[in-house]
């Protein structure tokens, strides 16, 4: 039986939030990585490319060659491939993983999905002329307050000195890049599979060969040469296939159905759920701020996803 578009969008939202949540939990659990953050970004793109590059080549064979780009690897025109790939894959991944050089995963769990609704709302208002309704502003305010409660104490430590603020800035910049990609998907009505294939193809012909050469020549710090094969395979499969292929497609389905602002408000559940998952799975302490923050974010989403 064919599922309705509403049911597909709802299932896509659940899958996206779950994958993003467990991404944070896995990052917290893997405190002693052999790999450096940019190595993980490299493996993320390689893992996704192993699935999406053949898929993109097959899609290209189903349409006129003039509609695609990158020698048939991307099903989208060059301008859309470059723009979406730059913000939705290359800049997002390198900024996000570079942030882990300076700030802990707890900061990432708050600042990336937590600031995403704010960036997306402002971009959609400016670029798509979407109105800032009273309910949407109320929902956004609840989400920001809830995220601040979940990670506020850890974020305040950034003012005690050191380089943590650099990581926080990188995380927020990564969220801003993903917001640009989100609004692009909505503005151009991009197909979920085609958009995910396009951004992966762009990364695989730009970042992947350049970083492989730089790591091999020793121009950048890298642990690709000494990391266990099992760990590298796990990162390629989980981050590449899980975070890029599956959640990339499901997130695009959300954006096409709910719009960029409502979609990113739903993903604002990730900070609270990842913190709650860390309590259950990793034995981290349960605090009043976690429960209150999760309640505020939930209320904000209920306000924000309404159409009026």
Salient structural properties:
mainly alpha, 308 residues, 77% helix, globular, 11 helices
Describe this structure in words.
By secondary structure, the protein is mainly alpha-helical. It has one domain. 77% of the residues lie in helices and 0% in strands. It has 11 helices and no strands. Helix 2 packs antiparallel against helix 3 (78-99), helix 4 runs antiparallel to helix 9 and helix 4 runs antiparallel to helix 10 (269-282). The two termini are 32 Å apart. The mean pLDDT is 83.
Provide the β-strand percentage band.
Answer: under 5%
Mean pLDDT: 83
Q: What Rg do the Cα atoms give? A: 19 Å
Task: Report the principal-axis shape.
Answer: globular
- What is the tally of beta strands? 0
Summarize it:
The chain is an all-alpha fold and 308 residues long. Helices cover 77% and strands 0% of the residues. It has one domain.
Topology:
Layout: H1 5-29, H2 37-61, H3 78-99, H4 105-127, H5 134-156, H6 164-188, H7 192-217, H8 229-258, H9 260-267, H10 269-282, H11 288-304
Helix pairs in contact: 1-4, 1-8, 1-10, 2-3, 2-7, 2-8, 3-6, 3-7, 4-5, 4-6, 4-9, 4-10, 5-11, 7-8, 8-9, 10-11
């Amino acid at each position: 039986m064919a599922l309705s578009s509403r049911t597909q969008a709802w299932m896509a939202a659940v899958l996206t939030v779950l994958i993003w949540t467990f991404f944070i939990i896995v990052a917290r659990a893997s405190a002693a990585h052999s790999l450096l953050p940019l190595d993980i970004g490299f493996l993320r793109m390689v893992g996704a490319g192993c699935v999406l590059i053949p898929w993109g080549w097959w899609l290209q064979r189903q349409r006129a060659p003039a509609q695609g780009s990158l020698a048939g690897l991307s099903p989208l025109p060059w301008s859309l491939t470059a723009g979406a790939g730059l913000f939705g894959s290359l800049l997002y991944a390198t900024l996000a993983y570079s942030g882990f050089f300076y700030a802990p995963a707890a900061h990432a769990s708050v600042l990336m999905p937590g600031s995403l609704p704010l960036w997306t709302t402002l971009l959609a208002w400016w670029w798509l002329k979407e109105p800032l309704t009273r309910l949407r502003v109320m929902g956004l305010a609840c989400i920001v307050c809830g995220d601040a409660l979940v990670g506020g104490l850890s974020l305040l430590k950034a003012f005690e000195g050191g380089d943590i603020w650099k990581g926080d800035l990188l995380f927020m910049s990564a969220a801003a890049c993903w917001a640009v990609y989100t609004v692009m998907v909505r503005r151009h009505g991009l197909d979920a599979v085609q958009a995910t294939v396009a951004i992966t193809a762009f990364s695989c012909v730009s970042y992947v060969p350049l970083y492989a050469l730089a790591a091999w020549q020793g121009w950048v710090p890298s642990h690709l040469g000494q990391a266990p094969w099992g760990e590298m395979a796990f990162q390629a499969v989980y981050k590449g296939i899980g975070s890029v292929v599956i959640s990339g497609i499901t997130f695009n389905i959300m954006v096409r159905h709910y719009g960029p602002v409502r979609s990113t408000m739903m993903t604002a559940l990730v900070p609270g759920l990842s913190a709650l998952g860390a309590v259950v799975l990793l034995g981290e302490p349960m605090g009043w701020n976690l429960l209150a923050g999760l309640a505020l974010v939930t209320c904000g989403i209920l306000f924000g996803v309404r159409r009026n």
